[in-house]
Design brief:
Layout (H helix, E strand, L loop, with lengths): L9 E2 L10 E2 L1 H8 L13 H13 L2 H6 L4 H4 L8 H21 L6 H8 L7 H22 L24 H13 L4 H5 L5 H25 L9 H29 L13 H10 L1
Parallel strand pairs: 1-2
Helix pairs in contact: 2-11, 5-6, 5-7, 5-10, 5-11, 6-7, 7-10, 8-10, 8-11, 10-11, 11-12
């Protein structure tokens, strides 16, 4: 293959061994830039490479194909001096879009979610930590009120307690189910994009992820359904699906902003807040 035609390629989840019409997104960037076949093109920002690698692995096929039109703008982003800005934009998105999206699956956490979604843009890791303090406290209170706090999660019982991993009603097992489900989503591309500030952001990122896990766990436990404990995984999947779907679109929008390192418009992320879209569709 010689000439590059975006319309003729199919993006794959994993890197390919040779240059054909099917290739991963980083490989498409290398081809467009005239580099040798590689999934680590020299012309691509490390922050953007980390983000698109996660997206490529986790987006559903139709959404993944949307990303090929971003290939030209990904070329030449290496060493453009914008990676620190990109990573802080990802932090901002995680605080003001990702976290409130998951908190709102619990009605009693609507105010905590709003306090994040309507927060001023996050400009540092310290800002992110400060913004999360009160919402995290609200999540802890909601967890204890719902009696779903689990060992090691936002101040649950003694983490040394030994779970019964054979019982799907065991809180440790249920928490693990939620954690694995969240960790499989494409919106983790935003976490990958915090690469440039990762050392300082890692503890904050852990807290916001635990808040999301706890909110989903509360909501899943409160859902009416079969008393059969074996349906817990299916219950979690059904509960998460609308928000996860909305966040897939939102993280693709985030990627476009990361490429140019442009901040959200004057209204912030709220101009396209996926949480509100989910709530409106639920009310239809």
């Amino acid at each position: 293959m010689e000439a590059f035609d975006l319309g003729m390629i199919t993006l794959t989840r994993k890197p390919t061994g040779a240059r054909t019409s099917s290739m991963s997104l980083p490989e498409a960037v290398a081809w467009f830039a005239g580099e040798h076949h590689s999934d680590r093109p020299r012309c691509l920002s490390p922050v953007l490479h980390a983000a698109i690698t996660v997206l490529g692995d986790r987006l559903a096929h139709p959404r993944l194909q949307q990303l090929k039109w971003l290939v030209p703008s990904l070329v030449g982003t290496a060493e453009d001096g914008r990676d620190s800005v990109r990573s802080l934009l990802a932090v901002d998105w995680l605080v003001r879009v990702y976290t409130p999206a998951w908190l709102r699956v619990v009605p009693s956490l609507d105010l905590a979610a709003a306090s994040l979604a309507e927060h001023a843009p996050i400009s540092s890791v310290a800002d992110a930590a400060d913004a999360l303090d009160a919402p995290l406290a609200a999540v802890r209170r909601a967890a204890w009120a719902a009696q779903v706090a689990v060992p090691g999660v936002l101040g649950g019982a003694n983490a040394a307690d030994t779970p019964d991993t054979t019982d799907t009603r065991d809180p440790h097992r249920q928490a693990a189910t939620v954690s694995l489900a969240l960790s499989a989503l494409a919106c983790d591309a935003a976490v990958a994009a915090t690469l440039d500030v990762a050392p300082g952001f890692l503890p904050v990122c852990g807290k916001l992820r635990l808040a999301a896990e706890q909110a989903v766990l509360i909501a899943a436990r409160q859902l009416a359904g079969s008393p059969d404990p074996d349906d817990f995984g299916a219950r979690v999947a059904a509960l998460m699906a609308p928000t996860a779907d909305a966040l897939d679109d939102a993280v693709i929008e985030l990627l476009a902003r990361l490429i140019d390192a442009t901040a959200p418009p004057g209204q912030g992320w709220l101009a396209g807040d996926p949480v509100d879209a989910v709530k409106r569709s639920d009310g239809d």
